[in-house]
Amino acid sequence: MSMDIILAQTVVNGLMVGMIYVLMAIGFTMVFGIMRIVNFAHGEFYMVGAFLFAILYGSNGMPFAVSVLLAIGATALLGLMMERVVFRRFRGNELNGMIASVGVALVLQNSALLLWGSSARTVPPVVSGVLSVGGIVFPWSRLVVIIGAIVAVVSLNLLIGHTRIGRAMRAVAQDAEIAQVQGIRVDVIFPAAFVLGVSLAAFAGVLMAPVLSVSPFIGLAPTLKAFVIVVIGGLGSVPGAVVGGLLIGLIESFAGTFVSASLSEILQFLVVIGVVLLRPQGLLGRKEREA
Amino acid sequence: MSMLEVDSLKRSFGGLVAVRNVSFKVDEGDFLGLIGPNGAGKTTLFNVISGVLRPSAGTVRFLDRDISGQPANRTVRQGLSRTFQAATVYPEATVIENVARGTLGSSLTGLWSGFFSRKWRGNAEEKAYHALDLFGLRRRVDLKARELSYGEQRRLGVAIALASEPKLLMLDEPVAGLNPEEAAELASVLRRVKSERGVTMVMVEHHMRTVMGLCNRVVVLDHGTLIADGTPADVVSNPLVIEAYLGKEAVDA
Amino acid sequence: MNLSTTKPMSYVAVAVAVILAVLLPWFAPNQFYIHLATVGCINLMLVLGLAIIARAGQLSMGHGGFALVGGYVSALLSMKGWPPLLTLFVAGVTAAVIAAALGWIILRLRGVYFVLVAFAFSQIAVLLALDMSSITGGANGLVGVPPISIFGYVLRAKPQFYPFALACALTTLLLTWLLYRSPLGTMMAATAENQRLTESSGIDTHRVQVIAFTIGSGIAGFAGALSTHYLRFISPDSYTFWESVSYLTMLVVGGRDGVLGPVIGVVVLTPLPELLRSTEGLQHIIYGTMLVLCLMFVPNGLASLVQTWRSRQRLARTSAAVVAEEVT
After folding, report:
1. Distances (CA, A) of A85 to A79, A192, B213
2. Strand partners, A131
3. Which of B110, B191, B123 lies closest to B163, judged by CA?
4. pTM of the predicted structure, to 2 decimals
5. What is the rounded CA–CA span in Å between residue C29 and residue C263?
6. Cβ partners under 8 Å of residue B107, min gap 6
7. Of A32, A96, A99, which to mutate for an interface test with C (greatest number of C Cβ within 10 Å)?
8. Of B97, B102, B116, which has the smallest distance from its Cβ to C2's Cβ?
């Protein structure tokens, strides 16, 4: 294969992986932006979505669309429950809320372990084969994920930019107190934002289930990736999550292809440190106003 | 040589210029009042001088040293302290602990000393007791700061600032929210602190009676610009100053 | 909780507890309890390290990473022939140096960013341990780590290790207690409670937080190394996210304020994993639930309950004294 092709393939792979990461990251950054909660359990909702989809579609053979909707819906409901029971109490308290989310992550992960066992499940692929364009290979299964991710990002953008509830969420993200004074029902917005974030994570899980195998332990990696991307892109910034996700995807692809897997991880970490040193609020983040 | 020299100071936030070309001096022994209508930029000016914000242009010199843009904690160690309007105390610590903590930055003890002996705490608390006597908080020493009344908390805030033994103390609206008796009481404490400890003071204040009663010089800010600088009597009769206050009220009415 | 006016736990109670701990090997029914106590000592050191970092207002989700680094450093050096007693300290210092560098960079950020990057560090540490298999043994880890020998006396069997572990834990406890009472410790508490006010008292809070992070993570490195020489084994699984969470849980459940909290947390939570080894999932669920419940209902930990009980006692005694005075 010529160098050009390898290079191009690497870029394409990087963008594909990157879009998956973007999908995982936007739910997380949204929840932080609006509720100021660092949700360590974010990846566990991804795992739950993947598991439910695997059980409904993979083991029980239910129709594809129904499985997707049920998996996401059930996970969203779980998220709503968590918000009511746990996170609501930590509204003013960022630190304790974060620690609580760690506890929630633990409970979710191990409940899945007890319910469904530790062995990995595979889900039959939704589509198969590859799309070949000029020597560059796009596996259809990955393409489906990319398309799903793009649809999600665009929809989210539309929601936040052009609907009333989106406007309300933006207002709350800017300043929850003032938003409340202006008549925005913060008590409705917070759970709505959390459910939205959780649904995005579940959607990512559903998309990825056929690509990777599903087990109770698949939640931690997406959580970590989301953290890294969001620090780079800027906490609370959806465009930042897109930029960060693609950047990380590209680094991973290039380092993985041309050097080694461990170097890829170190490199990503160094990029985080670099961004933090040079632009602490993230590439597209808002500079925090000084008191 | 003046104690504090502010020269052509400017501070903007994005497109908004909050402080525009402000210059004034503070001499040792002064009690300077910084007044002006709401939104005039007083707090921003305050924050730039004390090191919470960096200047966009211009310099601040303290004791003949350029302190523009340096971190606030260094400025405090050089002898310039300030109080705040909100979050003025350590709520969960006792009153005596609050003031004792105020002595840590500037005093004797380096970061690594005081490990094996308790002497530093005895010294710190002794200083703290003196300060608390001055502020009438002696009988409150073992209460947690959050259990104090609002007025007492404001007084405690000033005591903490004084614990770092500053040469210049900047007070951010010290009597805001206090009732007339509390305000008068705090004013007399400030007068005593000035005369007994020789601390030069700069005060941002809205409360005119306090300003007139305490300050020997007044500086007026309007829309970020310095419009008057003189004795209280001069300033009060200055037409520009009157317009700044009344003009704004007329617009808002 | 204000440390300057709270009377320390009565010295008698402390002395009794220490003596009991020392005499444990004599009245323990079998070796399992000694093993549990040893694990408890190592846990205590790790939780104290976390507590020191928390005292300055920061939360380190990367604690396990420093323990892992310390463990591998000590294992690798001692397997090259260095005396383990020395490599323990080298491990601690290595962890401290990394923490100082990392902390200096990320502690100038909002607290949230610090947590995320510290967490990322711990995960990177695990990934590196897995990937650099030529050095670290990969997923299999390192076996046959040399035992510690003190002046020729080799701590090979588990009961032999306990006194050493206890000594290390008690020393750490003492040093932490001294730190908390020192000016530096007070600066840390002040920084956590009101950072802006502490800055305006002339204290460089960034430096204070970096120092706290360095000390706390250095202790974690030392403790990780200690554990490695006890188990004579280390692998990427030794300090995962779960371990970081368990130390955090012990700290939160026990209490973040003084030195009593970590002790309580460790005593209450250490036996759990060992007793529930068969159903690992259940054990984690219990930890997670305890963490959340504690945060909701007893956010200052069990030690704060002790504190409230003692101050109620004091109040009762004082009112009784006042009444007595008025009567006479």
Report:
1. 10, 15, 56
2. A138
3. B123
4. 0.89
5. 23
6. B123, B124, B127, B165
7. A99
8. B97
Find the closest chain A residue to C128 by CA distance. Answer: A262
Residues of C in contact with B93 (CB under 8 A): 2, 189-190, 193
Q: Which residue type, as a one-letter code, is found at position A3?
A: M
Q: Rounded distance, CA B184 to CA B188, Å?
A: 6
> Which residue in the set B87, B105, B120 is minimally distant from C202, CB to CB?
B105
Residue found under tokens 């090979």? C156
Q: Give the chain A residue nearest B43 (alpha carbons).
A: A291
For residue C131, which amino acid is it? D
Q: Contact at 8 Å (CB) between C88 and C225?
A: yes
Contact state of A107 with C289 under an 8 Å Cβ cutoff: yes
- Which subunits have 3 or more CB–CB pairs within 8 Å of chain A? B, C
Which is it for strands B57-62 and B65-66: parallel, antiparallel or unpaired? Answer: antiparallel
> Which carries the bigger pLDDT value, residue A5 or residue B191?
B191
Q: Which of C76, C43, C258 has its CA nearest to residue C165? A: C43
A288 vs B: CB within 8 A: no
Q: CB within 8 A of A91, min separation 6: which ones? A: A35, A97, A190
Q: Could you tell me which residues are beta bridge partners of residue C20?
A: none
Q: Which residues of A33-59 are buried (b: 16+ CB within 10 A; e: fewer)?
A: bbbbbbbbbbbbbbbbbbbbbbbbbbe
Q: C18, C113, C100: which is closest to C53 by C-alpha? A: C100
Q: Where are the beta strands (DSSP E) in chain C?
A: 142-143, 149-150, 153-154, 233-234
Q: Kindly report the backbone phi and psi dihedral angles of residue A6, in degrees, each rounded to the nearest multiple of 5, phi listed first.
A: -60, -45
SS3 sequence, C113-172?
HHHHHHHHHHHHHHHHHHHCHHHHCHHHCEECCCCCEECCEECCCHHHHHHHHHHHHHHH
Task: Tell if the CB–CB gap between B84 and C200 is shorter than 8 Å.
Answer: yes
Q: For B176-235, what is each residue's pLDDT tens digit?
A: 888 888 888 899 899 988 888 889 999 998 888 888 889 999 999 988 899 889 998 888
**CA dist., res. C206 & res. A241, Å (int):** 28
- Structure tokens that stand for A282 in this block: 């993230």
Residue A196 exposed, middle or buried by CB count within 10 Å (0-12, 13-18, 19+): buried
- Nearest CA-CA partner of B190 in B228, B216, B226, B229: B216
Q: What is the pLDDT of residues C159-182, one digit of tens each?
A: 888 999 999 999 999 999 999 999
Distance CA C22, CA A120 (A): 46
The one-letter amino acid code at C35 reads H
Q: Which of A99, A261, A266 sits opposite C248 (nearest CB)?
A: A99
- Let me know: does C277 contact C270? Beta carbons within 8 Å: no
* Residue among C182, C184, C190 whose CB faces B101 most closely: C190
Q: Which amino acid is at B235?
A: V
Give the β-pairing of C233-234 and C142-143. Answer: antiparallel
Report angle CA B22, B231, B170 to the nearest 5 degrees.
Answer: 55
Only one residue has tokens 């306990």, namely C162
* Stretch B147-157: mean pLDDT: 90
- C-beta neighbour count of A185 within 10 angstroms: 12
Flag whether residue B48 sits within 8 Å of chain A, measured between CB atoms: no
ipTM, 2 dp = 0.89
Evaluated on CA atoms A253, A259, A265, A270, the torsion sign reads negative
Please tell me the predicted confidence (pLDDT) of residue B249.
54
Q: Do B115 and C207 touch (CB under 8 A)?
A: no
Q: What is the dihedral of CA C276, C280, C283, C285, to 10 degrees?
A: -160
C327 and C280 in contact (C-beta within 8 Å)?
Answer: no
Closest CA to A41 of A91, A117, A107: A107
**Calpha distance A28→A196 (Å, rounded):** 10
